[in-house]
Automatic annotation (TrEMBL):
Residues 512-678 form the Acetophenone carboxylase-like C-terminal domain. It holds the Pfam family Hydantoinase_A. This is Hydantoinase/oxoprolinase family protein. SUPFAM superfamilies: Actin-like ATPase domain (SSF53067). Gene3D superfamilies: 3.30.420.40. Residues 218-498 form the Hydantoinase A/oxoprolinase domain. Residues 6-197 form the Hydantoinase/oxoprolinase N-terminal domain. It comes from the Bacteria. It comes from Sphaerimonospora cavernae.
Length: 687
């Protein structure tokens, strides 16, 4: 019988994870394949074919666009292509910038902030700008903050700039004119000139990428978009050709977009994979009865941490990718270089360090047997017996002897026993992860002890007990198939596009506000129509501040007609949110006027989320499948359980190890893991 399936594919640094949901039967299939860093599309295709083979045995080298047993194959992809391009400082060698005459040094001036505070200002060296001075071109013309033309656009200078870029091989160009958020006409005329004079160039306009004020952030965000656009277009075109069909891509804001649309706004994908993980974990936590949670996505290269509040991940527009500020809506995620492949090394002072450098997928940890020579976090787990001598249910055997030799050699250099060296590596990695959790909680005014932690990713559950101890967490939730939660998250999200317009006013006219919201909703509707959605949902919000403040507070804005009562309701939400965030507000003080800054609309095309089935109850005591030597506080023969053999209500008391296809949960002495009705393992300390 023909069926409709949806497939989520998340490409990570070490493994490519894939989940298939059969919408007719509700069946969920998960699997993994090694990533292929040299060409991520190879790993993507291998993952799709593997999961289709597991579903119905037809996953070989087939054209997925051809008629087959499925009526629909919908594919959603979480990709790190754009992120890696920025983190590795690639893609900026042929990047050019066009700005308003007189503002050529905007990238050099930047902002006055110094990382780690002004105590670091003496030592800090400003990093190179994203575009060097000689590739910055100025064009005459000016509009004011209300969008009124003050000086006409200088087409002669525009032509000169376009021809210079063409003659010097600059093929990716960002355009950011002063106050183009209020009137984009001059930027659009610049694009016309570039299209005519330099047709091979890829062009990004700030009025398309980020139509709000603050020219430095708008300039860099636009240039980042231009920098990643060529590689993303090639990657998307390659995948579409090999698939024989279109697909969708996860965005940083928690929505998805068709690949044909993403190529026009690739910057929206810079946190694609981590965003999917946070959303998948939010759904899992919500089904388990937890409206708030910390999400910890441990991979091979890094660990991504986010916070779920009232069932939704926190959002921000103050994100950075590498050294570049990217002022686009994105899930608020902190990333730390503490994954399974993080390398242990000795500092010049003779102390043990872990990360952020990673062995990645190739050559990988020593135990992979692919030529790796540096000890990693995974090697420490293997030496201590906390993971089995293989990965993916036996598909990838591990070289335990090589890992042991590596740990012993490093321990000898440090003057430690091998056990102390290996546990030290894991302790440092756990503290690195705990620091990321503190950044996303304590530094945001949240008490980490108020939240359970959802630990997922291939390496996420490995340090769950350690993090409970370090942070005093209530519990850790380890979902089924934790290594595939990000891929599962890809199948839980709606299509979502964000639109913004700056409108600075202390006494805005409701008619003016209503007109802007109408225009933004029309833009959102057009995009959703192109995506094929008949049902449209619009979420309004606004950025407000007290007059004289430099930064704003975002609050949700109600639906319905925009009138005086509507504006008063938004202002009241601002007062309440400001007081919650900063401990004070000026609700009853007329000396502090409320200033409106940005109006926002999210256009949402809703999808049907996969249902998480209840697990059958297990009345009997769970039975281990084997025992092996594991080191916790000392070496001891330890029971090992298969997660597939545990039912709802099963209790595993440490010391123990719970293994499954894509991950392992070491249950330390003094901890208990209990399976809930939906297959999640709830880990708590008995101390």
């Amino acid at each position: 019988m023909p069926s409709s399936v949806r497939i989520g594919v998340d490409t990570g640094g070490t493994f490519t994870d894939v989940v298939l949901v059969d919408e007719e039967t509700g069946q969920i299939i998960t699997t993994k394949t090694p990533s292929t860093p040299a060409n991520p599309a190879d790993g993507f295709m291998a993952a799709v074919h593997k999961v289709l083979e597991a579903h119905d045995g037809t996953g070989g080298d087939v054209d997925l666009g051809a008629p087959r047993v499925f009526t629909t194959v919908a594919i959603v992809h979480g990709t790190t292509v754009a992120t890696n391009q920025l983190l590795e400082d690639r893609g900026t060698a042929d990047l050019g910038f066009v700005t308003t005459e007189g503002f050529e040094l905007i990238l050099e001036i930047a902002r006055q902030s110094v990382p780690d505070g002004y105590g670091n200002s003496y030592f800090w060296v400003k990093p190179p700008r994203i575009v060097p001075a000689h590739r910055v071109k100025a064009v005459g013309g000016r509009v004011d903050h209300l969008g009124r033309e003050v000086r006409p656009f200088d087409e002669t200078q525009a032509v000169e700039a376009a021809r210079w870029f063409r003659d010097n091989g600059v093929t990716a160009i960002g355009v950011c004119f002063l106050h183009s958020y209020a009137n984009p006409e001059h930027e659009r005329r610049m694009r016309e000139v570039l299209t005519r004079e330099h047709p091979d160039a890829v062009v990004s306009l700030s009025s398309d990428v980020l139509r709000e004020y603050r020219e430095y952030e708008r300039s860099v965000t636009t240039l980042v978009d231009a920098a990643v656009k060529p590689i993303m277009r090639r990657y998307i075109a390659n995948l579409s050709q090999r698939l024989g069909r279109g697909f969708s891509v996860m965005k940083s804001n928690g929505g998805i977009l068709s690949a044909s649309e993403v190529v026009h706004q690739p910057i929206t994908t810079v946190l694609s994979g981590p965003a999917a993980g946070a959303l998948g974990a939010a759904l899992i936590a919500g089904v388990g009865g937890h409206s708030g949670a910390i999400t910890l996505d441990g991979g091979g290269t890094s660990t991504d941490v986010a916070v779920i509040v009232d069932g939704e991940p926190s959002l921000t527009t103050e994100g950075t990718i590498g050294r570049y500020p990217c002022k686009i809506p994105m899930i608020d995620i902190v990333t730390v270089g503490a994954g399974g492949g993080s390398i242990a090394w000795i500092s010049p002072e003779g102390t043990l360090k872990v990360g952020p450098r990673s062995a990645g997928a190739d050559p990988g940890p020593i135990c992979y047997g692919k030529g790796g020579t540096e000890v990693t976090v995974t090697d420490a787990h293997v030496y201590l017996g906390r993971v089995p001598p293989h990965l993916l249910g036996g598909e990838i055997p591990l070289d335990v002897a090589a890992a042991r030799a590596g740990i012993e050699a490093l321990a000898g250099k440090l003057g430690l026993t091998p056990e102390r060296c290996a546990t030290g590596i894991l302790e440092i990695s756990a503290f690195n992860q705990s620091n990321a959790i503190r950044q996303i909680t304590v530094k945001r005014g949240l008490d980490v002890r108020d939240f359970p932690m959802v630990a997922f990713g291939g390496s996420g559950p490995l340090l769950a007990c350690s993090l409970i101890d370090i942070l005093g967490l209530r519990a850790a939730i380890v979902p089924p198939d934790p290594g595939n939660v990000s891929a599962f998250g890809l199948l839980t999200v709606d299509v979502k596009n964000d639109y913004v317009r700056t409108h600075v006013s202390r006494d805005p006219s409701p008619d003016a506000l209503g007109e802007i919201f109408t225009e933004l909703e029309a833009e959102a509707a057009a995009a959703l129509d192109r995506e094929g959605f008949a049902d449209h949902v619009y979420a309004r919000s606004a950025d407000l501040r007290y007059f004289g403040q430099a930064y704003e507070v975002r609050v949700a804005a109600p639906d319905g007609p925009v009138d005086e009562a509507w504006a008063a309701a938004v202002a009241e939400r601002f007062h309440a949110e400001h007081e919650r965030l900063y401990g004070y507000g000026y609700r009853d003080d007329p000396r502090h006027a409320v200033e409106w800054v940005n109006l926002r609309v999210s256009g949402i095309g809703p999808i049907t989320r996969p249902a998480i089935a209840r697990r059958p109850r297990q009345e009997d005591e769970p039975s281990p499948v084997c025992t092996r030597d594991v080191y916790y506080e000392q070496w001891g023969r330890t029971v090992v359980y298969r997660r597939t053999g545990l039912g709802a209500g099963a209790v595993v008391r440490g010391p123990a190890v719970i293994e499954e296809y894509g991950s392992t949960l070491p249950v330390h002495p003094g901890f208990t893991a209990t399976m809930d009705d939906y297959g999640n393992l709830l880990v708590v300390s008995d101390r």
